[in-house]
Amino acid sequence: MRAPNLTRKLMLEAPERVADGAGGFAPGWVALGVVWAEVKPGAGRDFAGLSAALSATAYRITLRAAPVGSPARPAPDQRFREGARLFRIRAVTERDPGGRYLTCLTEEEVAR
After folding, report:
1. Is residue 33 pLDDT above 80, yes or no?
2. 65 Cβ partners below 8 Å, 6+ apart?
3. Which of 27, 35, 56 has the alpha carbon at shortest distance from 104?
């Protein structure tokens, strides 16, 4: 198995509740840190959103592993940001038997 080519700089973000100023909360995101990753596209699909047609593409994002429980380890429902692009994390698994790398199964949604 060849080592992944970690050439893409991504920001790992986690969901956070933010006060909305009216006594309630709104969803928000907090940056957890930068990771270097290999990003490989998979299959795409089209579907109808609430106000526009959407296109979703699956991606496999591979990065160096972090221990279970570490805030640097990606988790489902977090996301990666690359500029304006957002990759929602659906699942995380070890890429190799030695646990040196993680593969995140993600999805990017784009309005068309």
Report:
1. yes
2. 73, 94, 99, 100, 101, 102
3. 35
